[in-house]
Amino acid sequence: MRIPQDFESWRRCIEVDCGIALTDVFVNRRIAVYADEQHAETQRFIKRYGAEHHRQVLRWFRTVAEQDDLKKEEKR
């Protein structure tokens, strides 16, 4: 499997290929873990995929969180 290089490919990989719903809970937990560079899981991720990809994935999770916040605002 190729490592996604853009947001849409990454999102498709998570939701379709892996079957993981990007719920608020899941996204916020991923942000909390990946924002903590001392967390063992984050260190493993960086070791395997590199620091730049780690930063990009964290940005993508934050983008999803922001999009979800906008959707919640629109429903009000």
Helix-strand layout with pairing:
Blueprint (H helix, E strand, L loop, with lengths): L6 H11 L6 H12 L4 H10 L1 H25 L1
Helix pairs in contact: 2-4, 3-4
Short descriptors:
76 residues; globular; mainly alpha
Commentary on this structure:
The chain has 76 residues and is mostly helical. Helix content is 76%, strand content 0%. It contains four helices and no strands. It has helices spanning 7-17, 24-35, 40-49, 51-75. α2 packs antiparallel against α4 and α3 packs across α4 (51-75). The relative contact order is 0.13.
Concise synopsis of the structure shown:
The chain is mainly alpha-helical. It has helices at 7-17, 24-35, 40-49, 51-75. Helix 2 (24-35) packs antiparallel against helix 4.
For the largest beta-sheet, the strand count, sense and barrel status come to: none
SSE order, one letter for each helix or strand: HHHH
Detail the poorly predicted runs: none
Mean pLDDT: 91
Task: Look at the helices and sheets and give the structural class.
Answer: mainly alpha
Overall strand count: 0
Radius of gyration: 13 Å
* Residue fraction in strands: under 5%
